[in-house]
Amino acid sequence: MSIVLDLAGLGPADVVAGPSALAELMASLHVLAEPEHHPEAADWAARAAATGPELRDELSVFAPLWARFRCRLFFPRTVPPVASLDEELTAVAELPKDGFLDLVAPGVLGSSAQSVPPAVELRAGTAAAEDYVRRCLRRSYARGELARQLVTAPLELRDRLLAVLRAADAGFFAEDWRTLRPALEDHARDVRRELAARPPAEVLTRLLPTAARFGEGERVRLDKLQIDDVKVAPRPLVLIPSARVWPHLTVKHEHPSCVVVQYAARGTTSAAQLTLRDLHDRLTALASPARMELCRHLLGEPITTSELAARLGSSEPQVSRALRTLRDAGLVRSTRDGKLVRHRLATDVIRRLGDDVLATVAR
């Protein structure tokens, strides 16, 4: 599954990169709402969560907006993006009722598989509004209650959300942003230099670990748990580096103003990200009892193919085929020593698959 971005028609000025304080705040709130998905941020999350019970309760109410789907309200709608949180929140405060509804209603529902009526139809008491609230309620009580408040009093909900975001800023984000922003701005400056020298598709494949060129033309496939084909032009493409979004990659393309990609900036991830194909290949390689047995012999000192064959009672061609599968999946490293080639298990790679996997191989 993947999103394909068609970048054809984008000129040098149509792809911009820069940090967004509001998008970073949203990513941070996502970490607080789902800390079990972000063990790399456990220390930061513990400090940030040490807020008063009133703020924690309010953040819980609005948590559907920064769940996996990510509400479009938190992403830039102007080019270049504004890095000041105060300016971004002021722009939200100035949104008219229908503008706020159009941006927030899909986020409350939290699904790209279901369409949301335009704001003009989401009036309290209308059949469209009642159906929308029912669909949100089927997803969760929290979404249903938020949807009810949204269609009943959108501007009151807007002001309440702004108060929560400002309280979160005062409580923990402002200090965090002062630390994170300089590195993100330096990273964005490097990206802009690359964009000035290379085509956008080449820059994206170098920038995003799970991105790859796809088919003909300027098409880039992003490894995501959804299927979509997005023609970016004539809209600009906005690249938002983040220190808190890892391991997620967020693509928002429903708004007419621009297409946004929020990604983990270099140096903010704990390890290289795998594509779904890489993960499939590694798990498949370990699923074979014969290859698992071979892995156990490779845990110690480096060993040759002939010695492995002798230990396993197999032929050298059989062992060579098994080694090739493991090596192609990145699970075995082979080094030449004169005329001999020795093999050893890549335990660091196995460990990233999980402690239980490594323990199973080792026991």
Task: Provide an overview of this structure.
This protein folds into two domains: 2-264, no CATH class; 276-362, Winged helix-like DNA-binding domain superfamily/Winged helix DNA-binding domain (Arc Repressor Mutant, subunit A). It is 51% helix and 13% strand. The chain is built from 15 helices and eleven strands. The strands form three sheets. Strands 3-4-1-5 form a four-stranded mixed beta sheet, covered by helices on one side. The protein is elongated, with a radius of gyration of 24 Å. The mean pLDDT is 89.
pLDDT averaged residue by residue? 89
Number of domains: 2
> Main β-sheet, in a few words?
4 strands, mixed
| Secondary structure tally, helices | 15
Rg, nearest Å: 24 Å
State the share of residues found in helices, binned by percent. Answer: 40-55%
- Briefly note the structural class of the backbone: alpha/beta
Work out the strand percent.
5-15%
Quaternary organisation of the protein chains: single chain
Instruction: Please count the beta strands (DSSP E, at least 2 residues each).
Output: 11
Written as H for each helix and E for each strand, in order along the chain, the element string is: EEHHHHHHHHHEEEEEEHHEHHEEHH
Distance separating the two termini: 35 Å
Low-confidence stretches: none
- Choose one word for the global shape: elongated
**Within the largest sheet, what's the order of strands?**
3-4-1-5
